[in-house]
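Hey,
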Amino acid sequence: MTRLDEVIYDAKTSIAKIGAGNVWDDVYEGLQPFNVSVVGGRVSGIGAAGFTLGGGYSYKTNEYGLTIDTVTGFEVVLPIGEVVFADATQYSDLFFGLKGGFNNFGVMTAIYMKTHAETFVWGGSITTTGVDEAVMAAVLNFYSTVTDPKAAILPTFNYDSSIGIRITELGLFYHAPEPPQGMFDDFLALPALVQNVSTRSLLSLITAFPEPTGLRGAFHTLSLHTLSSAFLDAVVNETQFWSTQLSPSVPGLFISYDVEPFLSSYLSHGSPSAWPPSREIALLPINLYFAWALPENDTVIHEVMTQSVDYLTEVAIAEGQDIADAPLYPNYAISGVPLEDMYGQNVERLKHIKATYDPANVMGLTGGWKF
């Protein structure tokens, strides 16, 4: 798939054709000469295809929605060998399925995406330690007061065994060369071990956040309706508890709990899609990422991540959030999660689309979630 690396911009339609073999770094670099960009990944090295087919949370989600909400069409090779273009008017059921339903229906070879004007953005990261109370206060103040859709934050509470301490990393973003005065002051006032916030290109911002390499890794998730002080306390406590429990026996341990506060309006930018199964309530994904060195620790890490998500779900329910059946974000969900826990009432429709375009289950030979 890496040969499918084209990035073609059509200035007349403001649509970019993006080959499925690209990583987001290449996409941003290819569009940069035209002073346009797209809604894509926040970390270097992430593939555009899988990210998009799973939904796509971005720094620009408040402003434009999920990545799938900016897709105008997909080029797909069906299992019978036919190349088709799926959009809202032709192969519309296939288009629906591909927006969050992964590679169940054929081989997606190109994405057609809306672009938006962009020269420079403002953002970067602040790395700190030992100031969890101040971090949580800043996160909650931003979440409760900032309604500017150009603004976004990505707080992560981490433990890194290579340095033996818990650290907090705060991703800050504003979709313009400078943010409004004072918007990020609570974060900028934190004592920083490292700070690299500046006006820069989106490519520069993304490449400052490389994808972790060299370790085994897994994700898991839960979906919230709102953020609270009690819930953030629980997240910090989970980071501390599991780092203490696991670090003596799990070489290479890295733990990250990512909190993703979005505006309640972000799902209004799109149309019905495989995921989320409903757009009535905006979901706030909590992303757990654990990394470790040895395969003999696979089982215990899987069990711990599942246990931690179950506990955090109980914390949210106890404070009145009706999230027992809230759909999980499939790009973050750990292996073994039932399809119904991600796709809800859409599962039967997606199985029907799958049977229509891949009756011989050719795509069942590939990895990922399968209908």
